[in-house]
UniProtKB/TrEMBL annotation, chain A:
<feature type="transmembrane region" description="Helical">
    <location>
        <begin position="797"/>
        <end position="819"/>
    </location>
</feature>
<keyword id="KW-0812">Transmembrane</keyword>
<keyword id="KW-1003">Cell membrane</keyword>
<feature type="transmembrane region" description="Helical">
    <location>
        <begin position="469"/>
        <end position="491"/>
    </location>
</feature>
<feature type="transmembrane region" description="Helical">
    <location>
        <begin position="385"/>
        <end position="404"/>
    </location>
</feature>
<feature type="transmembrane region" description="Helical">
    <location>
        <begin position="237"/>
        <end position="260"/>
    </location>
</feature>
<feature type="domain" description="ABC3 transporter permease C-terminal">
    <location>
        <begin position="710"/>
        <end position="826"/>
    </location>
</feature>
<dbReference type="InterPro" id="IPR038766">
    <property type="entry name" value="Membrane_comp_ABC_pdt"/>
</dbReference>
<feature type="transmembrane region" description="Helical">
    <location>
        <begin position="709"/>
        <end position="728"/>
    </location>
</feature>
UniProtKB/TrEMBL annotation, chain B:
<feature type="domain" description="AttH">
    <location>
        <begin position="69"/>
        <end position="251"/>
    </location>
</feature>
<dbReference type="InterPro" id="IPR023374">
    <property type="entry name" value="AttH-like_dom_sf"/>
</dbReference>
<dbReference type="InterPro" id="IPR010791">
    <property type="entry name" value="AttH_dom"/>
</dbReference>
<protein>
    <submittedName>
        <fullName>Iron ABC transporter permease</fullName>
    </submittedName>
</protein>
<dbReference type="Pfam" id="PF07143">
    <property type="entry name" value="CrtC"/>
</dbReference>
<dbReference type="Pfam" id="PF17186">
    <property type="entry name" value="Lipocalin_9"/>
</dbReference>
Amino acid sequence: MSGRRPARRAGVVGVTLATLLSHYRRHPGQLAMLLLGLWVAGALWSSVQAINATARDSYARAEALFETRLDRIERRDGTPLSPATYAALRRDGMAVSPLVAGELTLAGSAAGEAPLRLLGIDPLTLPGTSPLARRTGDAASLRDWLLPPHRLRAAPDVADAARRDPRLPPVEVDPGLPPATLVTDIGVAQRLLGLAGPTRLVIAPEAPAELPDALMRIPARQLASPGQLADSFHLNLTAMGLLALVVGLFIVHAALGLALEQRLGLLRTLRALGVPGRTLVVALGLELLTLGLVGAGLGILGGVLLARLLLPDVAASLASLYDSHVGTRLALPWHFWLGGVAIILGGLASAGAGLLWRVARLDVLALGHAQAWRARLGGLLRRQAWAGGALIMLAAGLGGWLWLTGDRQLVAGFVMVTAALLGVTLWLPAWLAGSWRLAARLGRRRALWAWALADLQLQLPRLQLPMMALLLALATNLGVSSMVGGFRLTFLDWLDQRLLADLYLHPEAERHDALQAWLADQPEVATLLPARHAEATLLDAAAQSAAPVALFGIRPAAVLRAHWPLRLPAAERDAAWQALAAGEVFVNEQLANRYRRRPGDTLTLRGADGRRHRLSIAAIYPDYGNPRPEVVMPVARLTRVFAAPPGSLGVVLRDAPGSRRQRLDALVTRLAARFGPATAESAIDQQALKADATRVFERTFAITRALDALTLGVAALALLTTLLAQAGTRRAQLAPLWALGVSRRRLVGVQCLQLTGTALGTALLALPLGLALAWALVAVINVAAFGWRLPLHLFPLQLLVTLGLAVLVAGLAALLPAWRLWRMPPRQLLQEFAAT
Amino acid sequence: MKHLKTLLAGVLVALLAVGLWRGWHSTPEQDTARGYAGLGSAAEGYAEARPGDRLVFPADHGAHPDYRIEWWYLTANLEDAAGRPFGIQWTLFRQALAPPGATEAAPDSPWTSRQLWMAHAAVSTPDGHRAAERFARDMTPAEGPGPAGVRAAPFAAWLDDWRLAAPDGTDSGLDALTVRAAGDGFAYRLTLAAHGPRVIHGDHGFSRKSADGQGSIYYSQPFYRIAGTLTVDGEEHAVSGRAWLDREWSSQLLGPGQSGWDWFSLHLAGGAKLMAFRLRGAGRSGGDYLSGSWIAADGTVTPLDGDALRLTPLTRQTVAGRELPTAWRVQVPAQALDVRVAAVHPDQWMATTFAYWEGMVRVTDTQDGTPRGVGYLEMTGY
């Protein structure tokens, strides 16, 4: 007999499981909702993970490439080196190797497609630490490499495209290359890129070199690797993915709760028929596992598809933000798949654990009674509110500490943001319950009002989860939108600051002075803004360490002063400009943050001639988008003291009748007649330049916007799921009201008001949370990640949009149940009433 | 030493000439038939060294880009003040990657050329050895010389800062030169002055390299006195001694079935010099091919063929995982020469991309062991 027991037991589990699952046959919508929740949570999470994994793989390959391991030698003025300079350095015994780097647009590539990175190398002199140098060791391949038609090594993602370009040498696929990278012999690359000489020389970090003054050596350790730079971006993505997972799990929670609630009677019947509690738990566990596996599979599949869809945008964002290349094809390691399944099953387990617990302690005789539930919930709410309060305190404390110390730590910033989000979310039900109580007190005399609020208290257990999801989505939406909006404004300001003139000219050095004199005499020209660039070395106080800094010469004309932002109160700005004219300098925020300088401090710079200059800092200016430390001084001083070569000439047009375009064209035509077409062709219309820059920027935040919208969509879905789930119960509660004479129209109105009101209450809590999030992103996380701070822009419209979104989401979610109620025949309502 | 160079060059050529090389990769039998990676058959399109070619100086001190391979090969036996033996090697190889006209350089690119340069430098100390190699592409920038090259007059041969050249402002052919090079843990800077005439080997410079008839153009300046400074591991040594410069170029150097060579350049007591080589497997019916030059103290050259010259390995030692004959019996009966030539120490392996043994040797009388001179020995293909 004992031998037959396991078989019987398995049979019982099977029958129980079949009975339990039959519920979904009657309610396929619930099953769909459950799977949808799992799918959405899994898809968002795993798409972010897939993107991150691909990016990391790309960085790893980029770092393995020689460029990041070798010191660079460049001309201080940034112009290309000549082959003669290279040969002379070699003959002087310096183990430099020439390198050509540039961007190449393949023939036949679609318009707007990002250009590829093309590197030209000399394998004979490339320092031996480079994988590329070793790979060309085979003699036959060396000959093929050096002689026409040469060879081209291409990263796998671009090999096919490269093969189609008739200009390129025969292609060999090299999986070790970073994405979108081509490597070929230096002569070929130089011809393809139309360059006159190598863009730079590379040298092993340990090799000595005594360079002429015009050249500078940039140690490899100062060339930040793309991985470090983009870490913060991926941290942001991961946080977004985590958020999506949480929101998705809210849906699962709601759907599972409903599926249990509706099966409580069935479960009791099964228990009464003698099915042991443990068997029930096992059967339900099996049900969860099955759902989880199916959901995880769907989720990961969806995630990969989503990632494929988003990856080009992410790659574009990274390329324009950090100049680092990420493959546009997914490269997924094995642990990605396992990790995805684990995280979704884990999330499901967290949602299902409470359910299993309740089933295990199911009281056969107790009747499911919402009021009893509510009493237990009171304790739960209090505990949640306490935990939430503690988390909010933690966030506030961290925020205060970061504020006071001025120390911008990425980890502290993220802990703060997480604590704030989680804390406020936990606190939300208590806030809603409190608000309702207050509102009920205010409208005591109006029966329907009092009923509606009391009814809401009863709905709270089920409403709290979707409302939490809504809160998170709204706050994130507001915070991220504020940051992006602020970034956008600031970026446009920065473009204005840097691209102030109507026209930019880059004349050849020997024509620079003549052109400048000629332009000054032209009637269209209001102001000339000559600018020059040079390089210097920043020495620390003890001259122990040195770092390259860019020098930027400007002409502080009135129009420039008006647009050049300074981190100073308005009253002190004139004094700062006077100080600049008197011999002091401005430094950008990157330099100020990295080397801890403030106005009034001094800098010691070593110029190209080796002489040292001590300069006093008059002001700090914001310099978004510029990765390098920079020092600004009047262009005349830069030319005199640091021997800056001739640079660009900006032309600000005089205000005059006629279109700007016409006056510009007239000027350029005369310019061409006087100085030849080559000089005129160097003219760049500032508006075109700005449009280009803006377009690049808009792509930069495409991914943020996409994830934002998805999160909000998930929140709406969660709300809809919950409402649909409780629609049946709701009817039973509404039927008596109808029987008492409340019209269906009013009932629908009350329902919609209840929901939108709740959503509005949630949104009110989301506003401060979103603003705090925006502050954290802008003032803490950005500074820690990028070295510069954005001004915090508040957009009142954005706040209104957030409130509106909340109402809209709630309204949309309420629409379907309301419509069903509206269409319900009175007979059915009567039946429901009779049943209660 | 020239032999060594020849070997090296052969290896280089073999490695670099793609078409030929592929055949070598496939089956060893095929290789042998084509003569050491096809060296014997692949001269198509290149100029060929022939008996009857006449040397023209100073032009022939410069490069011969229409030939496949060429070298400027200097070795020196030195002593410090205490009489301890030192040696140096300085070699510049030129290698054509393709025959003339096969692939013309893109006219707008200074980087594309069918010529490749390689240099080896080494210092031998009484008990050790340091070596380094460098590569450069042949390029001619718009201004100034390239990173590697050779100028016939005033003579200069260089790759990076390794340089063998007439001192600035002088031009006396190859008679007065300075040489310098530096590598990991060593550096040298020396001055050379010739006290005897240039020596032309073989048939007016055509040096046969196998029984089948192919060969190279080959001349030497073996009569240098040399002095200067060596630095090894930071320690400076003032040294002086004798040096030997070889010039050789060819397009079809080796015979079929050849496995390597052993090459001697000896400074003998009394002022005579001996150049002798053995090309293993290059002789009739697979035997060795022997050849050499007896150079009297006054520079008079007597060519030596296989019957006039005997080279016999005596003892073998394991160097860099290979068995090498580090002691030899060298006999030139017509000159009553019967000497033992032995490495000063076996550790003079050139662990370069194309590896070989090149080192200083002592010459002693086979009968009574009295010192009879010094020299350099090159052994390849082991």
